[in-house]
Design a protein that fits this description.
Aspartate Aminotransferase, domain 1, 115 residues, alpha+beta, globular, 5 strands
């Protein structure tokens, strides 16, 4: 994306399938997990905010989608996110693999609880 999209709809519309459908699913998942959150574009990617603070971001790429940041968690949570960890603060979901929407909801609610 060359220019900053005006909103999350515009951001998602800028991608081809299957990325577009996955991004829409991530958006729905986070919106359901954080019903009080507002949507925004921050750092040129979709962001959910609570009380004016960025809580969780997601982004589409050519071969994957990503979720940022990663909250701390107990051993079971760390084990659940381990296959998707792509650096200290990023979860990466490869295209062609099932997207763990339940895990994305857990990440969002854990991030919201700490903000």
């Amino acid at each position: 994306m060359a220019e900053q999209p005006a909103d999350i709809d515009s951001y998602i519309a800028g991608f081809e399938e299957p990325v577009r459908d996955i991004l829409a699913g991530i958006r729905r998942t986070i919106a359901q997990a954080l019903p009080a959150a507002s949507e925004a574009i921050s750092y040129q990617i979709p962001t959910f905010k609570l009380d004016g603070h960025n809580v969780v971001h997601f982004a589409g790429w050519k071969g994957h989608v990503s979720l940022y940041p990663i909250p701390a968690g107990d051993a079971a949570f760390e084990e659940a996110i381990a296959p998707y960890r792509a650096g200290k603060g990023t979860l990466k979901f490869e295209l062609g693999e099932p997207v763990p929407y339940d895990l994305i909801a857990q990440v969002a609610t854990r991030l919201a609880a700490r903000s």
